[in-house]
Design brief:
With about 110 residues, this protein is of the alpha+beta class. It is built from one helix and six strands. Strands 1-6-5-4-3-2 form a six-stranded mixed sheet, with helices on one face. The radius of gyration is 13 Å and the shape is globular.
């Protein structure tokens, strides 16, 4: 398992060892995860839209399986680089969620 603040280098799909506890994530990520499970409201219009996984860092799934959400970055004037990407049929009850703090170059699977 990587240590928070030391991103896993882009090297292909996330593995089981690439995980992080929700409580280890920044407060803003924890709040975003709560918003996801509540169904919003989300601060950005792009939140909740399909994530294409073009970088192929996440396990391959059918189109529309993943959705992305902005994790606010204190002091950033734009959306910043932090995101939570969740997958599953039910948006409020995702099967799995991933955190990136480097704009999709690496991901860690969020565990409860």
């Amino acid at each position: 398992m990587s240590t928070f603040g030391q991103p896993i280098l882009a090297r292909g799909p996330v593995t089981a060892s690439d995980s992080v506890a929700l409580t280890e994530l920044p407060r803003e990520a924890q709040q975003t995860e709560k918003l996801i499970r509540a169904g919003g409201p989300f601060p950005h219009t792009k939140d909740g839209l399909a994530f294409g996984n073009r970088e192929r860092q996440l396990p391959r799934r059918e189109r529309g399986y993943y959705r992305e959400y902005t994790v606010p970055t204190p002091g950033a004037r734009n959306r910043g680089a932090r995101r939570i990407v969740c997958g599953g049929v039910q948006v409020r009850e995702p099967e799995t969620c991933y955190y990136t703090d480097d704009h999709y170059a690496s991901f860690r699977r969020i565990v409860q």
